[in-house]
Amino acid sequence: MRIISRRTLQEFWEIHPDAEQPLKAWLAEAKKAQWQNPNDIKRTYRNASIVSDNRVVFNIKGNDYRLIVHVRYDIGILFIRFIGTHRQYDKIDANRI
């Protein structure tokens, strides 16, 4: 998959260094993936939450952080919509961000 806005993740791990390795691992896995539908993602990430508008919420570093991506399965692109702490995530609407 092609990942749009990797810089967002890099800027986040510069502020939260403990997120760097888990996010790099997620990037490597997502880059290699060829997800065609939400079930493909769930096979790789059982704890991922599929929400509306082709958005997926990933737990990062044992659920310390949350990553929301918008998936365009038809063209193989993941758009980073949000990365934040669990507390920050609780204040947003994953379906709209």
UniProtKB/TrEMBL annotation:
It comes from the Bacteria. InterPro entries: Toxin_HigB. One of its GO terms (molecular function) is RNA binding. GO terms for cellular component: toxin-antitoxin complex. This is Type II toxin-antitoxin system HigB family toxin. It comes from Microcystis aeruginosa G11-04.
